Automatic annotation (TrEMBL):
Protein's recorded name: dITP/XTP pyrophosphatase
CDD domains the record matches: HAM1 (cd00515)
CC per GO annotation: cytosol
Role of this protein: Pyrophosphatase that catalyzes the hydrolysis of nucleoside triphosphates to their monophosphate derivatives, with a high preference for the non-canonical purine nucleotides XTP (xanthosine triphosphate), dITP (deoxyinosine triphosphate) and ITP. Seems to function as a house-cleaning enzyme that removes non-canonical purine nucleotides from the nucleotide pool, thus preventing their incorporation into DNA/RNA and avoiding chromosomal lesions.
Annotated positions binding Mg(2+): 39, 68
Summary of subunit composition and partner proteins: Homodimer.
Enzyme class: hydrolase
Alphabetical list of InterPro entries matching this protein: dITP/XTP_pyrophosphatase (IPR020922), ITPase-like_fam (IPR029001), RdgB/HAM1 (IPR002637)
Cofactor, how bound (note): Binds 1 Mg(2+) ion per subunit.
Organism per entry: Variovorax guangxiensis
EC number(s) reported in the record: 3.6.1.66
Length: 199
């Protein structure tokens, strides 16, 4: 089955391709098919993921899958949440992973409560008008470090410390990260839903 991935994020594509391979699903990035990025006007991951999947499916006529993910920091009442990708721009930095990490560490400099979670919400549609979208959520809880540690991964991986491993996501080998990450959890739940509902 060919699915349009409603994202142009190369890191997401790489992670999801590995996770979806067992189902024989081929993910095609929307930009490859000439599809522009969708508007993301909503305040929840599920609403934005649904909007992105509908946009990609409508533009291509293919089934689509979208991931909306972000960092939810306890001390900030769950923010940056859906604004995670643009977090750094709120503090005068250009958009980008390194600047997001820098801005987060600056904002948390005097904060002792370091609890946070990376959250991924996947939405899959058979068509743009599918009345029963498949929705899967993954959540990886941990703590924000005081400095980046590790070279693997992307996004906030270098500052997301997982007490169960005693390491950040960026220190873990990719296969271990995929087995325990928010996106890995959501992808496994989505695969189960696809097998049950779409097979």
């Amino acid at each position: 089955m060919k699915l349009v991935l409603a994202s142009n994020n190369a890191g997401k594509l790489q992670e999801l391709q590995v996770l979806f391979a067992p189902l024989g699903v081929e993910l095609v990035r929307q930009s490859t098919l000439g599809v522009s990025e969708a508007e993301e006007p909503f305040r929840t991951f599920v609403e934005n993921a649904l909007a992105k999947a509908r946009h990609a499916s409508a533009a291509t006529g293919l089934p689509a899958i979208a991931d909306d993910a972000g960092l939810c920091v306890e001390a900030f009442g769950g923010l940056p949440g859906v604004d995670t990708a643009h977090y750094a721009t709120r503090f005068g930095y250009e958009k980008g992973d390194a600047n997001n990490v820098r801005a987060l560490l600056e904002q948390m400099a005097g904060i002792d409560d370091r609890r946070a979670a990376l959250v991924s919400t996947l939405v899959a549609l058979r068509s743009a008008d599918d009345p029963e979208p498949l929705i899967a959520i993954g959540r990886a809880a941990g703590e924000i470090t005081r400095a980046p540690i590790g070279d693997n991964g992307f996004g906030f991986d270098p500052v997301m410390f997982l007490p169960s491993f005693g390491q950040t996501f960026a220190q873990l080998p990719p296969e271990t990260k995929n087995a325990h990450s928010h996106r890995g959890q959501a992808a496994r739940a989505m695969l189960a839903l696809m097998r049950e509902r779409w097979s």
